[in-house]
Amino acid sequence: MISAWMNCRYALGCLFTSTAAGRARRYALSSLLLILGFWGGWLAAVPALAWQTPATVQREAQFERLLAGARAHGSVRVIVEFDTPLVPALAEAERSERFAAVRERLIARLAAFRPSVLKRFRLLPLLAARLGPEAVAFLRTLPAVRAVYEDVAVRPTVAASQALPGSSAAATAGFTGADWTVAVLDTGVDRAHPFLSGKVVSEACYSTTDPEQGYTSTCPGASESSVAPGSAEPCVAAAGCDHGTHVAGIAVGRAPDFSGVARDASLIAMQVFTYSEGGLVALYSDLILGLERVYALRNDFKIAAVNMSLGGGQFSAPCDSNPLKPAIDLLRSAGIATVIASGNDASSGALSAPACISTAVSVGASTVTDTVASFSNSAKFLTILAPGENITSAIPGGAYIENTGTSMAAPHVVGAWALMKQKDPGASVTRIRDALVRSGRPLTDTRNGLTKPRLQIDAALGVVAGAPEAERAGN
Q1: In this predicted model, what pLDDT tens digit does every residue of 419-448 receive, in sequence order?
Q2: Distances (CA, A) of 285 to 78, 126, 312, 347
Q3: Which of 9, 108, 121, 237 is the most buried (most CB within 10 A)?
Q4: d(CA 191, CA 236)
Q5: Residue 387 has pLDDT above 80, yes or no
Q6: Does the annotation mark 83 as catalytic?
Q7: What CATH number should be reported for the domain whose range is 51-151?
Q8: Which candidate in 186, 190, 242, 424 is catalytic?
Q9: In degrees, to the nearest 5, what angle opens at C-alpha 110 toward C-alphas 107 and 116?
Q10: pLDDT tens for residues 78-100?
């Protein structure tokens, strides 16, 4: 029988002979088809979600949340990410042209739903818009759309200086951030303040007016964007408008009796906050425009790092689905770090967004007694700690005050980054981050038992300088 089966294995007709062997084969085939039919039907009945990748599951869950919001409120502010590769090696003009073509095709396809097109991004595969539920549902069907995110609003991370450990030794050795620049995306900077006199080399403002959401732009003339001189003047009509000046002073301020961390570094000042009925907020879409602007200036200035002392929410794991990640990664590809405050929710196991992005440098706060601050968010994936309690710096109008929060900790790290780049201009973001982490003074958080390094700038300068060229390559 086996021989007969092998002899006719390529002839379907041999299965249907009238012999006993043929009848046996017909029975076996019928049984097999029955089994396959049963399992095929069962598999078809299983929800498709069970067979999707984690990324697809996350995409679908995000769409469900956005649809619910659009249905409840009539529309929702979103950031759409195209499924177009971000290739940093491409020339800016070519990258911009590629993304513009995809973006304009998408806008044309959405035209029937009458979207409010809010913001176009030149160097990233993104589009920000206000959409109704029908438009959100339509985006869900488009293979060219990789993801759709809510255009989230976040707030400054202030809860309420001691000298940075090692900063005096660094300055004595000649490391003051000279020839390097840092960017501060915040509530604006008083460039006329004596502490920041002559520091500002470029300004921009990205803000939003949206009556449906209760948003009003803080940019000059109520425009939604500007790169003209004076664009980053601090807002004036809300509590917290002094925040950006205070943060900038910690990073690069200079006075006869005391200074910021990188006293000879320059400053790119950006106002990215919006007036809202609940106070100042910064929308993700405006933050992305600000980060994109920093990247565009990379050949005009030697930019060490970007500071964002803002955030919201609590995330117990890295939040790499955040729409700011492509912009942070683009800067990282150019050797520019994005340093973000961890948040002041007193969480012992979570960071706020966007600090939770894995390619950002997240910063928690230490106290004047060199312990982990009780208000500081902490998690296993926190990068580093820096002083954040009772930090003296500038505020608009020529005065100085003490403030407390992870907002104050982050610019210590940004200033330190400028010193590290002055010592070793070729050092990558990864190399400097690792040097800061390895050289920091370990502090144990009694809330969770986690030990994290507190910034120790003189020790870090010694570590980064010893890296062979091969270690400094890459991001």
Answers
A1: 999 999 999 999 999 999 999 999 999 999
A2: 9, 9, 15, 26
A3: 121
A4: 14
A5: yes
A6: no
A7: 3.30.70.80
A8: 186
A9: 75
A10: 999 988 777 766 778 888 888 89
Q: How far apart are CA 206 and CA 293, in angstroms?
A: 10
Torsion of CA 237, 239, 241, 246, to 10 degrees: 160
The DSSP secondary-structure symbol of 24 reads H
Mapped onto helix, strand or coil, the DSSP state of residue 142 is: coil
- SS3 label, residue 332: helix
Tallying the residues shown for the chain, one arrives at 475
**Choice among 193, 210, 217, 243 that is catalytic:** 243
The yes-or-no verdict on residue 71 having pLDDT over 90 is: yes
Extract the tokens encoding 282.
Answer: 């910064």
> Among the options 276, 352, 376, 407, which is catalytic?
407
Task: Mention every residue, 6+ apart, whose C-beta is less than 8 A from residue 200.
Answer: 189, 191, 232, 266, 267, 268, 269
Query: Rounded mean pLDDT of 321-343?
Result: 97
Q: Is 210 a catalytic residue?
A: no
Contact (CB, 8 A) for 194 and 148: no
Question: Which of 199-203, 207-211, 235-239, 402-406 is predicted with the least confidence, judged by mean pLDDT?
Answer: 235-239
Model pTM score = 0.84
**Token pair belonging to 396:** 């608009």
Close Cβ partners of 162 (under 8 Å, ≥ 6 residues apart): 368, 387, 389, 390, 391
Answer yes or no: 186 catalytic.
yes
Residue carrying the six token digits 């370990």: 442
Q: Rounded distance, CA 118 to CA 347, Å?
A: 34
**CB 328 within 8 Å of CB 359:** yes
- The class of domain 155-472 in CATH terms is alpha beta
